UniProtKB/TrEMBL annotation:
The keyword Transferase does not apply. Residues 54-81, 181-208 form a coiled coil. This is Cyclodeaminase/cyclohydrolase family protein. InterPro entries: Cyclodeamin/CycHdrlase (IPR007044), Formintransfe-cycloase-like_sf (IPR036178). Keywords: Coiled coil. It comes from the Bacteria. Residues 10-189 form the Cyclodeaminase/cyclohydrolase domain. The keyword Cell membrane does not apply. The lineage of its organism: Bacteria, Bacillati, Chloroflexota, Chloroflexia, Chloroflexales.
């Protein structure tokens, strides 16, 4: 089992990512991107909480901070889960298929783990989508000198959702359960609905405040 990403240095992670090792891959990178977006949101809240000029919104800031931290931990965990799912899938593909019975067991195992491998990036996209309203709340209110961090957070959030969905789709392509595939594609459509518009709205607020 690969060591948890929480226990690796950034340099080790990047070296492994750039190597011939199959993990970490795109699913883990997507989840970690989302965790970084959540971290930026937490940082902006932490820098604002306690300042007298923001006393009127401090309770809201604390709630946003707590929510961002919950999502950050979830996304970090999903990065590890993505690696674990790939390892389980590799094991399933190595199962024997000498007899028809062996082949049936192998196929069932591959289908089961592939479904799990689709669900993890779907949860990554859903967790990242939960960051959008936090950015929407913060962009008009936090200090001008740190509002650019919210702009970065929303752009990373958008990229996280889109990249996680790619990892969902590549696993859906290998599934036989077409009802599950249809239901998951419907969930994807909900996640991307108005994603570009929401991102552009927040970035526009950030730019207006930077240049205002």
């Amino acid at each position: 089992m690969t060591a948890s990403l929480d226990h690796q240095s950034l340099g080790t992670f990047l070296d492994t990512l750039a190597s011939r090792a199959p993990t970490p891959g795109g699913g883990s990178v997507a989840a970690l991107n989302g965790a970084m977006a959540a971290g930026l949101i937490s940082m902006v809240c932490a820098l604002t909480i306690g300042k007298a000029q923001y006393a009127a919104i401090e309770e809201d800031l604390r709630g946003i901070h707590d929510r961002a931290e919950t999502l950050r931990r979830e996304l970090q965990h999903l990065a590890d889960q993505d690696i674990e799912a790939f390892e389980r899938l590799s094991v399933a593909y190595r199962l024997p298929r000498t007899t028809e019975a062996d082949a049936a067991v192998r196929r069932a195992a591959i289908q089961q783990v592939t479904r799990q491998a689709a669900e993890i990036p779907l949860r990554t996209a859903q967790a990242a989508a939960a960051l959008i309203p936090l950015c929407t709340s913060l962009a008009p209110q936090v200090g001008r000198l740190i509002v650019s961090d919210i702009g970065v957070a929303i752009l990373i959030t958008k990229a996280t959702i889109q990249s996680a969905i790619l990892n969902v789709e590549i696993n859906l392509a290998g599934l036989d359960d077409q009802q599950y595939v249809r239901e998951t594609r419907a969930s994807i459509e909900d996640l991307v609905a108005n994603l570009n518009e929401k991102t552009e709205e927040i970035v526009a607020i950030v730019r207006d405040r930077i240049n205002g």
